[in-house]
């Protein structure tokens, strides 16, 4: 391909005369991304030709499995990449004029493309490629209009069904990677968190119904491939959908269909697999925002909060995340907001407040907080930084407001008596409910079962060690492996030599 001005003019003229020449169209689409060729192609008005090709009647034809407009659309995207390649290129007057033309004509492109719903919403592999190209173009157009301050273009794009196109790409995406990218694009065109009622109506309509929208959200959250960045992007879309105030029915339907429960499951999965990966911090922050949003807008917020505590182990999850914040010298605004909400609900009796206290709430909070409160405080005391000090102070206040007393909880922790849940503060599952007798997962917990059973066994083999506490044997929490637990106890100077020998023989 010639990179001279005359060569570029000749190629563009040939394609304009023979728009069905897909080989030439493909070559010029690729050449548009070449920085050495861009200025000649721009002067030959290649970007104008790409838009003309999309709008022309012959775009009803196909290129193999693909609709004809896919290649010129990719060409438009490549032109915009060239225009914005460097700050100097973006400031160039001719580049800006070409960019403005692409943006001004983009609403017409949206209307034309929206006629081919089957190609965008199909389950075939080529439809996934169509969604990929369309998503890239949507983001480039939407963000380009913002950079140039073309508010009118954005308004016309919404009228021209850009939200519908973005929703189709997100709703029908097959791979976790594309779902993540389309979630970002959809968040952008919805103007989150400032969506209008019309924006949300377009979203719901493109999904087919409100129930289908929420079913897809829940399914995405259940996807085991969705961790780290992929999960963070999915939940970021949900933050906007639950945080808006123009369609409260939408938020309450998320509550009814237990989307926030799926968020809690998803963050536990992420913590188990990625621990303190940087993207996990985004997942934690966004998930906390969704939970707070849902509770605040629920029909019965106190009852919803109580249910999360009783059935979905919200308290150990909160404690575990705050502990991770302290260990990493970070802060999570959303989970601190949730902590503030829990404290507020301990005392509020105002009839004008929607989140008021109740005996059931206080009872649930006290019982579920009890078996995590003191070991978490103990661990926080061992971390010497500002974040730990802040978390420790708030965690202490929450326990006191729930009716817990330091000495009683310390004794419970150290003796293991009255322990109703997994007390190991570094347990990454953060899921164990407070009744091990009725919960298979808790009964199967190596840490919970082996620690308490081992303590009973140790106390049974010698009268001289009756006063040894669980907290003394495992000051930093027990090792996950039971054999390592036994080895650690055998080495402990808290046990008399004859008792250690009995333990060696028994193990």
What characteristics describe this protein?
507 residues, mainly alpha, two-stranded antiparallel ribbon, 70% helix
Briefly characterize the structure.
Helix content is 70%, strand content 1%.
DSSP helical segment count: 30
Major beta sheet, specifics?
2 strands, antiparallel
Mean pLDDT metric: 83
* Content-based structural category: mainly alpha
Overall morphology = elongated
Strand numbers in spatial order across the main sheet: 1-2
- How much of the sequence lies in strands comes to under 5%
For the record, give the distance between the C-alpha atoms at the N and C termini, rounded to a whole number. Answer: 78 Å
Overall strand count: 2
Unreliable stretches, pLDDT < 50, 5 or more residues? 432-438, 442-452, 457-467, 476-483, 502-507
For the CA atoms, what is the radius of gyration? Answer: 30 Å
**Into which percent range does the helicity of residues fall?**
over 70%
């Amino acid at each position: 391909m010639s990179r001279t001005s005359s060569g570029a003019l000749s190629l563009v003229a040939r394609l304009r005369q023979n728009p069905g020449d897909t080989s030439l169209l493909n070559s010029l689409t690729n050449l548009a991304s070449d920085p050495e060729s861009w200025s000649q192609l721009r002067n030959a008005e290649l970007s104008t030709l790409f838009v003309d090709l999309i709008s022309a009647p012959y775009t009803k034809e196909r290129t193999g499995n693909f609709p004809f407009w896919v290649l010129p659309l990719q060409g438009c995207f490549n032109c915009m990449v060239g225009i914005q390649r460097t700050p100097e290129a973006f400031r160039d007057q001719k580049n800006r004029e070409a960019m403005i033309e692409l943006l001004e004509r983009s609403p017409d492109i949206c209307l034309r493309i929206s006629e081919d719903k089957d190609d965008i919403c199909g389950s075939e592999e080529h439809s996934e490629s169509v969604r990929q190209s369309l998503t890239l173009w949507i983001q480039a157009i939407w963000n380009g209009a913002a950079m140039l301050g073309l508010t009118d273009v954005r308004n016309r794009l919404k009228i021209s069904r850009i939200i519908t196109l973005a929703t189709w790409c997100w709703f029908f995406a097959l791979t976790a990677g594309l779902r993540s990218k389309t979630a970002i694009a959809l968040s952008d065109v919805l103007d989150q968190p400032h969506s209008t009622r019309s924006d949300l109506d377009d979203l719901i309509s493109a999904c087919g119904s409100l129930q289908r929208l929420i079913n897809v959200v829940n399914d995405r959250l259940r996807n085991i491939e969705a961790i780290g960045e992929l999960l963070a992007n999915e939940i970021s879309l949900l933050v906007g959908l639950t945080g808006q105030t123009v369609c409260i029915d939408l938020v309450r339907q998320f509550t009814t269909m237990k989307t926030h429960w799926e968020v809690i499951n998803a963050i536990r999965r992420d913590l188990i697999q990625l621990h303190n990966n940087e993207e996990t911090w985004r997942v934690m922050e966004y998930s906390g925002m969704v939970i707070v949003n849902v509770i605040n807008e629920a029909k019965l917020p106190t009852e919803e909060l109580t249910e999360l505590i009783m059935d979905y182990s919200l308290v150990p999850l909160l404690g575990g995340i705050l502990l991770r914040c302290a260990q990493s010298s970070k802060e999570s605004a959303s989970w601190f907001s949730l902590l503030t909400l829990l404290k507020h609900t301990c005392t509020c009796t105002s009839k004008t407040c929607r989140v008021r206290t109740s005996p059931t709430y206080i009872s649930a909070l006290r019982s579920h907080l009890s078996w995590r409160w003191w070991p978490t405080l103990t661990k926080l005391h061992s971390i010497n930084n500002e974040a730990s000090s802040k978390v420790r102070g708030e965690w202490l206040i929450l326990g006191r407001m729930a009716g817990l007393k330091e000495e009683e909880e310390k004794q419970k922790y150290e003796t293991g008596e009255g322990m109703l849940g997994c007390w190991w503060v570094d347990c990454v599952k953060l899921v164990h409910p407070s009744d091990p007798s009725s919960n298979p997962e808790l009964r199967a917990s190596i840490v919970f079962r082996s620690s308490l059973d081992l303590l009973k066994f140790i106390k049974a083999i010698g009268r001289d060690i009756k006063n040894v506490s669980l907290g003394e044997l495992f000051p930093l929490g027990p090792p996950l492996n039971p054999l390592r637990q036994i080895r650690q106890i055998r080495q402990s100077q808290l046990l008399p030599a004859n008792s250690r020998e009995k333990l060696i023989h028994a193990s």
